[in-house]
Amino acid sequence: IFFLLYPSLINIAQKYQQIRFRQTGSLVDSYSIQDIEKLVEERQKYSIKLTEEEIGKKFEMIKDLLYEGKRNQALMLINELLNSNASEQVKEHVRILQSFVPLPNPQNIDYNPSCRDVLKTPFLYQDVSISWVGTVANLFFNQRKETSFDLLINFVDEATVEGIATIKMEGFVSELRNGRKVRIFGKVAGVQIDNKVIILDPQIQYLDK
């Protein structure tokens, strides 16, 4: 019985800890993302208009980047062409190149976009690998089936961060606690309506003891 109830007990303990922190003023009830209105405005205005020459050059660059093993840079160009004014015929050839994109490797990230980059133009970073450091918040265990939390990235002040990523993992990750410093490696899946970046296939490295 204790085995089954343990995740729920941890949830209660984490909730109580948050309440105590709020009473002492050492934890903010919610966090805002720095300049999020400006980032959303830029996102809404962003469009990709390319000449035929630019499209041709980027297509060749994708092939070169794939040959060099530069996964993220290749994916960013693939996403750019797929979301541009390129013809459907060109996009079909781009999708063929997309099938040759290698699997993510945490030991080989050729370009690591910031959370703010992703917030500004999320469609350019679809499936791109990230390695982000942040603080665990809003940790929740769904029994032993799933662990979810927010990753608070780069505090500007006690209530403002540069970005927030939402993380979900299968199973009960007992080592996690609110406030722990971690590095997350995973793939960008998009941005939620509340402007949290969705990360898939996360791997965790603990940066504190």
Summarize the structure.
This protein is 37% helix and 29% strand. The protein is an alpha/beta fold and 209 residues long.
* Inertia-based shape: globular
Kindly report how far apart the N and C termini lie.
29 Å
- What is the helix content? 25-40%
Structural class computed from helices and strand pairing: alpha/beta
SSE arrangement:
Blueprint: H1 2-24, E1 32-33, H2 36-45, H3 52-67, H4 71-82, H5 88-98, H6 115-120, E2 129-142, E3 146-157, E4 160-170, E5 181-191, E6 197-206
Parallel strand pairs: 1-4, 4-6
Antiparallel strand pairs: 2-3, 2-5, 3-4, 5-6
Tell me what the structure shows.
By secondary structure, the protein is α/β, with parallel strands linked by helices. It has six helices and six strands. A five-stranded mixed barrel has the order 2-3-4-6-5. β2 and β3 form a beta hairpin. The longest helix has 23 residues. The radius of gyration is 20 Å and the shape is globular. The two termini are 29 Å apart. About 4% of the residues have low confidence.
Which labels suit this protein?
209 residues; alpha/beta; 5-stranded mixed barrel; 6 strands; 37% helix; globular
